[in-house]
Amino acid sequence: MTEVIRVDDFSFRYRDANRTTLKRVSFSVEQGSFFCIVGANGSGKSTLCNALVGLIPHYFVGKSRGSVRIEDRDVAASTIADLSRHVGLVFQNPFNQLSYTAGTVAEELAFGLGNHGVSRETMHAKVARVAALMHIEDLLDKNPLELSGGQVQRVALGSTLIMEPDILVLDECTAQLDPLGSEEIFDIVKRLNQEGITVVMVDHDMERVARCADQVMVLGAGRVRALGTPEEVFTDPDAEKWRIDIPDYVKLGRGLEDAGFDLSDLPVREDQAVGMIREALR
Question: Where are the transmembrane segments (predicted)?
Answer without folding.
Answer: none
